[in-house]
Amino acid sequence: MNRTVDAVVVGAGIAGLYALHKLRGAGLAVRVFETGDGVGGTWYWNRYPGARCDVQSMDYSFSFDRDLEQDWEWTEKYPTQEELRRYLDHVADRFDLRRDVQLGSRVTEAVYVEDAQRWLVRTDRGDEVTAQYVIMATGCLSASKLPEVPGLESYTGRWYHTAHWPEEGVDFTGQRVGVIGTGSSGVHVIPLIAQQAAELTVFQRTPNFVIPANNHPIDPEHQRSVKADYERFRQANRESGFGVVFPPATKSALEVDAKERTAHFDRNWYGPDNHPVGLVAGYTDLMTNEEANDTVAQYVRDRIAEIVEDPEVAATLQPVDHPLGTKRPCVGTGYYDTFNLPHVSLVDVRKTPIAAITTSGVRTSEREHAFDSIVFATGFDAMTGALSRIDIRGRGGLALTDKWADGPRTYLGVAVAGFPNLFTITGPGSPSVLSNMVVSIEQHVEWVADVITALLERGASTFEATLEAEDAWTQHVADVGRMTLYPTADSYYMGSNVPGKPRVFLPYAGGVGPFRKKCEEVAANGYEGFAIST
Ligand code: N01
């Protein structure tokens, strides 16, 4: 297809669907390109058994349409992938979005043509589209990665990555299965594979803090009461730190006695409405002071020791090398109990590293494990991976990957100097993965739609972050990060799960509410920090 549109949106997940809706509403001709054969983004691809959101249903949903939020009935505390996919399919149909979404089409290139002041976008299907605006709705956790070990091409069994699960599902009944990775995806999939497999071997590099989901059907009364005043609920999320509301902390964890602390942690471990953010948001200093953090970390280690019967296995599962929350805590169901099953074993790859994938399985420094299937729950090249896999070139042919060789540089996580009229929804330097993504996506998309409306009203042709604003914001993001414990851990927040990736704290830790305020101030001050030309 060769054509001219006002805006190209890359990705048809939560961000892309909403960007299409908003920009269409602003009168723009929009084309969305999506690699998948369906809409939904994260919730289209991550259909492995047990996939579930770790933000509660009533929070993790669009707020832009009163009727939508009233009509949709959530069924559980945490929505399953299947329910979220149905929801996003419903949104696509309800707002007639599909006619502007081209599925099965990966954007490979976006080049800014300076003379024309337009972007030229190409796909792997041979499409060439020019557009005044490009909206990268490519997701923070969408560029999946395999482990950096040789030999996968020689493996003769079946293998799967959690983020590209076969639509028809996989039956592991009677199989010997190896799972590599114990982040959120591994934590979800391991207990369910254990129910089918004859033998399950879990390869763990870094033990994670896994907080019980305590999932349950939504209390209809709770759903009714939230919906009765949904706007107030949404506004509180928008003004909060993480995009979900918890009672504000007033005390240091070190100020209260052990009994009081334990009672708080118990509520956030055993309680029906518990959540990992509730654990860390309970005291003022759990994310800024290592000694304070260790109170909650030790609490979780104690729970692991209670659940896991074999003390050696329990010790291997206990995280000791990073403060709780500095890698995203996982929400699990029956995760630790799974290691009590006789057919489940745990391999600590810090002690016995994986040397290779072989024709029949996985070889560690100690021995070979034969498998019928291997599941890679090895995560993503987070935040920048989906962008760097597209050849994006701004002014003077500068490649975004070159500009970001030492780490991403953005203004407000949404714009990059030298790349006019290109917007990165929940890009690096915005709260993104530290927040309820739907809240952050809505904020960014609405801000971008307001920008474009303002440009149309002014008859302006380009909108571009200044270098000074970008430098100052990038410095601010790093400074705020350094005030927290996040940089102390090796995590995808730091890019350190990808060999060779610069070790830079990627999201903005200043909080969803303060970030929104900053974006509003920038707009109210005539988009300070941006150059606008006609
Ligand atoms: O990915 P991860 P994920 N050898 O990067 C290990 C969201 N999400 O897909 O920690 C051995 O967290 C790696 O080890 P280490 C959510 O935001 C949400 O699980 O790097 N192991 C780690 O254990 C989440 O945080 C939901 O040492 C290797 C694992 O693979 C994010 O996505 C559900 C290895 C990767 O964990 C990412 O989660 C799922 C190697 N060579 C995901 N390479 C919900 O909302 C990597 N690992 C519920």
Task: Characterise the protein shown here.
The structure is a single chain. Helices cover 33% and strands 17% of the residues. The longest helix has 22 residues, at 437-458. It has 17 helices and 20 strands. The chain has helices spanning 14-25, 42-45, 66-71, 81-94, 184-196, 220-228, 230-239, 258-270, 276-280, 290-307, 311-317, 335-338, 385-388, 400-403, 437-458, 467-482, 512-524, and strands at residues 2-10, 30-33, 101-102, 107-113, 118-123, 128-136, 158-161, 176-180, 199-204, 210-212, 330-332, 344-348, 354-357, 361-364, 368-370, 373-376, 391-393, 422-424, 462-465, 530-533. Strands 1, 2, 3, 4, 5, 6, 17 and 18 form an eight-stranded mixed beta sheet that branches. The protein has a five-stranded parallel beta sheet with strand order 7-16-8-9-12, covered by helices on one side. α10 runs antiparallel to α11 (311-317) and α15 runs parallel beside α17. The mean pLDDT is 97. By secondary structure, the protein is of the alpha/beta class. Bound molecules: 3-acetylpyridine adenine dinucleotide. 3-acetylpyridine adenine dinucleotide binds at residues 51-54, 141, 147-149, 162, 180-186, 188, 203, 205-206, 328, 349, 354, 377-380, 433, 492, 497.
